[in-house]
Structure formats: C-alpha cells, structure tokens
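>> Question from a student workshop board

For tomorrow's exercise we were told to take the sequence and the ligand below, predict the bound structure, and bring the output to class. My setup keeps failing. Could a helper post the expected result so I can at least see what it should look like? The ligand is 3-methyl-2-oxobutanoic acid.
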Amino acid sequence: MSITNFPTGTGSASAGIPITKVTVPALAEMKRQSKPISALTAYDYSSSRLADEAGIDLLLVGDSLAMVVLGHDNTLAVTVDEMLHHTRAVRRAVRRALVVADMPFGSYHGTVSEGLTNAVRFLKEAGAEAVKIEGPRVELVRALTDAEIPVIGHLGLTPQSLHRMGGYRVQARTAESANRLKADALALADAGAGAIVLEGVPAEITAELPVPTIGIGAGPECDGQILVFHDLLNLTFAPPAKFVRRYADAGTLIRTAIEHYREDVEHHVFPSDEESYHLPESAKRVMAVKAAKGVLRKA
Ligand code: KIV
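>> Workshop helper replied:
Here is what the output should look like for this input. Compare the format with yours to find the bug.
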C-alpha cells in the first residue's frame, strides 16, 4: 500500500469519525460553500497526528521548521533534504488533512526547470500532495500546474525575502503596493495556484480572488487561517507576533513536567516498585537456592 493510499470517504479516523480526505479541489469547494479552512504548520509524526485527529484541514510542512525545530535565526538555511525528511514524518501521520510541503529558499529561485525538479521530489519521495512557493513566480506556478503538481502561492510578508524586505515587516501598506499584491494574487490564481497564503498584510486589502486565501496576520476576511504550531502552543522563546493567539501553554506544561521528573529521579522517587519489573517467584526460588549453596561452599 502506498503511503498516500488512504481510503477516501470510507475509512475511519482513530476517533471514529469518517475520513473525507482533504484535497486541493476540496479547498475550492470549501471556499464556494463559505466553509473556513483551518490550517496549521506540522513538522513531525506525533504533533501532525494530533493535528489531523483534531480535524485541521491543511497541514503545511513549513520552512519555519528551520527556526522552530532546528533553531536557525531565519528560514533560509533549511535544505530540500531536511524538508523532505520532515515531510515524510508528517505524511506517515496524516490521514485526512491536505499535506503541503514548503519549498525552501534556493530550491526554486533559479530556472523553472530546477524548481520543477525539486517540486517533483516532494511528491515522489515524501508523499506531499502540494507544494508552496513564495512570491509572484507566475511562470513556475504554471509549469508546476502543467506537471500535475498542485501549488499554493504565498504573498505579502514572505520570510524567504527577509533581506530584500529589510526585516519582517507588514507588506502592502500603500494603495500602490496593495494593488500590486492583488494583481500578483490574480496572476498566480490564473496560472493555476490552488490557494494563496497571505501573510503580514493589512486586513483591508485581502484580495477577493477566485481561489481560497489562507491568512496569517492578514485579518479575518481570508477563506482560511494558518498558524505556526509552536506559536499556537507557546513553544517559542520570544514574544509572539501581534497576529498570534496562544491556545495553550505547552511550554510551561512541558518544562514543569520535566522538572518534576528530574526531582523524582534526584529524590529516588522514580521509578516506584510498580514501575519496575520483577522476577517470577520460581526464578527467585532458584536464585535463593543457588545463593544459599554458594554460602555453604564458602563456609
Ligand atoms: O513556513 C511557514 O510556517 C509558513 C507559514 C507561516 C505560512 O510559510
């Protein structure tokens, strides 16, 4: 069975809920029905499985993993091979959500042909169902679409353009740049993009597009919302951006649990007798006899 060969509309998730696999065309249908798209970043098996079982529609293996998982200062360092490694782990966990892989910096900034070759790897070697690319790369989106690779665009504050932008700044704050962003979004949609992530743009200029928009710091009018897993759960080590809502404090939960574990080890409270394995009575008897014989021989 192929890793992507989950039954559509028939199987059941571990919570007993019937699976209706989310696909790129399903996102368009959700937009048509005004059903908001929930999206989250994902990087490993256990958290992706939890997110999938919680009913998230789209899981993005974001290149933000460079920062929140690998500890880099920005997203630029992460490689195609590292992104493939994490995409495979997410793929193994997910039954219902659409699995989208972020193409990392440098993997699609040369020729269209190079971008195409790298994108193919995400579907072929890691089981991604779509790739995401940053910026108005219309020619590449058209080529990927022609090659049967669903593609999601990403406009506005595009973190791979950090150095060109001069920092992580809200984009499209003037009428001129807002209109340019709308034109870019329309061009990507026209080239075949299945959805467009809008990041760090004023809520007022969220473009009315023929394809779903998924916002992050782009206001409530988008067709869906995406957050970084670690932001949602307070697993980061810096103050959150304005658009982040923390739904739980997993950072404190994890730190406290680990402190308790360390204290229990230090005070010989862990493991308890119940948490230890024991010899069966028969083996204990044999050992006792042997020990007694040893004592007699020495005497
Ligand atoms: O890499 C990422 O996490 C992203 C989201 C912020 C959309 O691109």
